[in-house]
Write a structure and sequence with these properties.
- This protein is α/β, with parallel strands linked by helices.
- It has a six-stranded parallel beta sheet with strand order 2-1-3-4-7-8, sandwiched between helices.
- α1 crosses α8.
Length: 212
Amino acid sequence: MTHILYLHGFASGPSSRKALFFRECLQAAGARVDVLDLAVGDFERLTITGQIAVMEQAAAGHPVSLVGSSMGGYLAALYAARHHEVQRLVLLAPAFAFARRWAEFLGAARVTEWRRQGFMDVFHYGEGRDRRLGYQLLEDAARYEDYPDVLQPTLVFHGAHDDVVPPQSSQAFAASHPNVRLEILDSGHDLLNVLDHIAPLIAAFLLPAGVT
């Protein structure tokens, strides 16, 4: 049976609308789907390294395919570049160059203040409230490459009107990786209005005919 790990986005969680949607549709297609809690209940101490460790524990060295949204898409690419047992990837508006883009978005003054205080408050979409986030996330993320060298078959969907992660980042990734197929959609960052369109494409990609 095809084993799929779903990786939620930043300040989201395993009960997000997309996580539940893809778990239902991919399980209906015959896959085993695990929706991970990448923060494992400790959002304040979140790091890229810690989230990769959660993925390693869930995969346990066995073949898996990955579906990742936003930061989860970036994590999927990082993981696949380091674990050749990953079979296929689906990236939804992947947040490539996470550390650099966050620093640019916040600006030098806010980054300096974040470093000085050691934490800042951010809105957690999964919980619907502000949560404290430690500076270690940005510090740790800076250790990782902007565009992981993924060799596995990869399907990427990105919204043309994404105002969080520009679609040009996925276009640059696809242009340098012949194993990547990219579709730019009439949507924003969350891709919620195109879920019914991309779900069967994702199922067909991750579960080729006769493979379960």
